[in-house]
Amino acid sequence: MSAQFDRDASSTWSFEPTWDPNAAWDSLWQQHQQPTSSIGGGSGGEPWDDFPPFPDLTSDPTVSPASSLMMTDLTPQFRYSTQTPIVSGDTSASASVCAYNDDISPIDNSDSNSNSNKDSPFHTISGAPPTRPKIAARRRSAVLAPKSAAAAAAAAAGAGAGRSRSWSAAVTAAPMYKYVAHAQLSMQSGQPKNCLENQNAWLQIARISNERHRVLADRFVLKKGATSVKELKARADVDHVLALFSQHYVREKVAILAREHVKHERASGHVYDDIGDTTTTTTSSSPPLLQALQRRDLEAANKSLWLDQNQPRTAAQVKQFPRLTVFDEPCHQQPNSSLTPGLLAVEVRTSSGYSDFTASSTENATLSEWDCDLLQLRHMFLLRESEDRRRKNKYYEFIEGKMKRPLNSFMLYRSALMKAVAILKVCSVVTDTCQVLSSHYPQLTEPQLLAVVGSVVQDVELPFTLPVDIDRDVVLEAIQATMYEPVDTFNPNSELKLVDPKFNSQTDVAQIITLMWNTEPEDFKQRFVEFSQIEKQHHHQVYPKYKYCPVKRERSSA
Known about the structure:
The protein is mostly helical. It is 39% helix and 7% strand.
């Protein structure tokens, strides 16, 4: 079925079918071979000539023709009851015999032998052939709700471009995406901006106790649903995410994983270029960025990564790149450290100014050797630039020079932990390796196991201070079992590839982190509240004439 769409000045959509809805009734009438009979003494030779005159259409200019035709469905004269399906013609309709209400019908339909319900306002004329009812035009939808500002801007742009008048076509024909329109409304452009480097701090989060773990699981299960299947899955998701935050020695695990990836890439001939895409090479030379990261040469790395964001970004520089924004303070605490040993620390950073990760940074925010290790894993799924961000490149180019709101304490916490949980998920690969080795060597602690794995990965001698003798083949088997997986999951003997961990649902992870904020101890929350004041003050220094002007959403009157 084809259809044409019309829209009048009153923003009322109508759906006008191009097929004749009465064609099936004509076919059924011809099957009864009574083309000249009439019902009710009509003189027109057609069975529908007895019907009362069709009501006049409304003259209201704000109502579309389709809206006027739909009004006839509400009058008793044109109601009909469904009896039998149509054999020929339009199978989506059904055959029925039109009858009048008792108080308006010109024919007495009463019959003592009839089984029809007299209490019903509809009666079927017994023995009469099916007649053709007057069917009103079908509507597609009711009056549209008031447009949002973004939809209005997109529709206006689409109308100017000469495209279809439909809303979806207008959006696709617009010169800018709809989320760019939202950003344009919520951000104040043309305001003076001062060039200040962003400030950062390392804030610790509390470890997950058994009681807090139980509370988080119960709340997440309550949020997901009460069915047994959903409850089991929800508890498994909570256990998995919270187990990531219970890891230790994050820096050492990142370094081991980076060396294993580089070794595998060189052995297989598949290396990653400066933007993280895989390429095939037959030479032993590494990409320039990898060489710069291994030398810890930040000036050379700045040619491929936008490290000095005080300077305009070039086409060869990648804007998004991972940094090690989470670590755990070791038990041998540094003398000048204010962090508590054994707790995870995440980096929070102001969002209004620019960031400089080169050696010229005035805020001591230069990339560390741990950051360079993590950058060698930038091709992994959780660490590379998301496909959604690549699709919204126009949006991010648009907001680079625009004014944004300062982040509150919760948003600082959430953004920091969303970055941290991705890094912890990557580190869990090495954690699994240590767990496999601990079953063979229960006498070794986790730092000793990491030293063994690191020595085997680098092909150097094992540490001499270990309490037991280590079999390198056992370590290699543990590495292959946890860091690699078959390319073809249905063929265990297929070629191996490096494990690239992913989350089943990024939304579930974000919801669990929100619950973690709600159950975070107050003394840990207070640290984020204090940094939110720094964020607000820094935002005021960058945008001295900023004024909070929220964009209120248009609400349709019920």
